Amino acid sequence: MQTDSGLAHIVLDFDGTCTQIPPIFEAYLDLYCKGLNESGLNVTLSEWRDAQAIVRQHSPKAGWTLAGCPSAPAAGDPYVLADEAARLILRRRGATTPVPPTVHAQAYEAALAPWREEAGDTFSRLVEHGVHLHFVSNSSTTFISRRLRDLFGDGNPVTAKISVQSDAGKFRICELNWDDQAGLSVEAKRRFQALPVAYGEKLLTETERPIYLRRGAYFEAINRVLAGDFSALTNMIFCGDTWEMDLAMPYALGSRARCNRNRCCSPRLSVRRSAEISVVVPRIWLPAIRAVPFGKPLDRCKKIGFVWRDATLSCCPKSDNRSVSARGSAALVSVQLTQFWQHPSDGFRRSVRLL
Length: 355
Prior knowledge:
Distance between the termini: 28 Å
Radius of gyration: 20 Å
Largest sheet: 5 strands, parallel
CATH class of the largest domain: Alpha Beta
CATH architecture of the largest domain: 3-Layer(aba) Sandwich
Order of helices and strands: EHHHHHEHHEHHEHEEEEE
CATH topology of the largest domain: Rossmann fold
Number of helices: 10
């Protein structure tokens, strides 16, 4: 089912997009350091804090290199920051032993980020209006499914209407698996092959490194959401908190993209497209953006903060046949707010009317 505007699907990232990071930011980092010590790496508190400060100083020019290639700002969120800080410590020691994956897993579980306060109501009302919700995240499918049960309770019919296609590996800059492409249609393969290696024709001044687009594992997760029908991208919005990792590739493929940022984390780069079509979903909390001036060059696009607001969402029409070459021109996707609102759960308060 589609709304009158044609919106049929919303694809959500999980951490930072639908959860509150500020309440667990410091706790997670402390628990991560504790895990490093329990694993035998013996990291002092001052060494840990110094490493974090250095990573913050160099982000977003420094990228998260979990899979060997920069895939997101190195201080993009506490999980990325901790991983990069630990890697920095090990490099300085000349150590080749990787950080055990249990360090993150245990800290992540012990410092669970709470759902955004409006998440349950948002999901319920969107489902009521016939919008299909999908989670595509680096977090595991099992974990997100459990968090949804925690949010709605066992047996809630809303949970059954939210699909989880996770374990997406968005941080992996890679081609499609050459030995397992039977599940990809000819059109899906064509779409991926048409993607440029990186965004834009020159490096962004904010990063001074490429924003890589060809993320094969993430593409395959999107293919599962679409059931191979890439024409549905025109009726879909992707929501994430890291432009580079969550949104750049879907945007280049032709989807609409919307970013939400937690204040405690490193600012994200953001790019949006022009033209409007009204998506009227009354009294529903949706991500709202501070507008970027139309036609402003991508390499001069400032880092944008985002809040959640009661909004009438304005997005691009299906007739926007933009090339996937993804040339760098940032544009305006506006949100017409129906009211002012102050939302403290992002760790700050402000009241802004966006037009």
